[in-house]
C-alpha cells in the first residue's frame, strides 16, 4: 500500500488570554505572545497542503477554562483536522479548581480533536485511510489528586493501548504523548533535573510499541527541538511555541512499496506584533533567567561540582539551554576543566565518531 501525507506539529503553545496571564520572575516561556505566535504559525502553515495538525500537550498556560475554550474554538476554524492531548499544564490537578479544569473535563473541550469517548482522557482514531493516531494521557496524580512530577501511563490505559495495537489493521500508527519516552539529553532518566520530563514507565511503553511495530512517537514538554531513537522507534519532540526558538514542524510521510520515510522540516516564529525581534529578545529572556538553572546543573550528576566552582563556570553557560532548545547544537568550552568540557560534548548533536550530525530540525528518517 502506497501512502503519502503531510502534517504539522505545534507543541506547548501555553495559550493565555491577556486577562489570564500571571507572572513568575523565573519562567522561561513568554506566554504573552502565545496567541499572536499561534496566529503567525497558522498563517505560515496555510502555504502547505496539510492533512492534519498535532498538538502534543501544554495547550494552555495553566489549565484555565477560558484558555481551553479559546483554543478549541480557534482550532475548529482550521481547514484541516487537529488532534490534541493533555500536558501537565492543562490539568494541573486531577480535579477541577476555581482556576483550572480537571482531567475528566479535558475531553469535553476537545470532542472535535480526537476525543470521541468523553469518559477517558486518551483515544485512537483514523486520521486518514491507512493511518491511525493514538493520543495518550501521561499525567499522573497521587491519592489527593495532586500532580506527580514524572509522567506515567497507568495500568488501565496500558491495557487499553495493548488491545488497540493488537486490533489495528492500519498500515501506519502514530503515537502522541506529552512526556518524553526516549532520552533527549544524556542520562536524562537518571538526572534529577531531566527525569521529571520523562515517562516513569517508558521502558514498558517502548517494549509494547516495538512489539507492535510502531516507529513514530511525537512528544513535547521538554521545550527543545530534538529527534531521538530507540531501536526502530523515533521520538520527535518539538519545542514550545512560547519559548526560544518558537518552533513548529511540517512533516511528510511517504511509503512506496516497502520503503518508508519521514521528512522533517522546522519553522520559527521570528516576530509578532510588538515583538519585532522576537528571536533575540526571547534568547536574552532565557539567558537572563538561566544562572540558577546552570548552577544546579553543574552541582548535580553527571558534573557534581562544588558550589563555588559551579558559580564560577555558570555565566559561560548563559545560552546553553537556548542552544539546546534550538536543536543541533555542538558544545565546546575549552576554558572549562577537561572532564567538564568532555561531559558537555555529550549534549552535542554528534555521531559516535564525534562528527556533527544535525537531525533535530531538518532530516529524512528512513523507517
UniProtKB/TrEMBL annotation:
Pfam family, one: Metallophos
Keyword entries, A-Z: Hydrolase, Iron, Metal-binding
Keyword Hydrolase: yes
SUPFAM superfamilies the record matches: Metallo-dependent phosphatases (SSF56300)
GO molecular function, one term: metal ion binding
Domain Calcineurin-like phosphoesterase: 5-224
Alphabetical list of InterPro entries matching this protein: Calcineurin-like_PHP, CNP_phosphodiesterase-III, Metallo-depent_PP-like, Pesterase_cyn
Family: Belongs to the cyclic nucleotide phosphodiesterase class-III family.
Protein name stated in the entry: Metallophosphoesterase
Organism of provenance: Thermocoleostomius sinensis A174
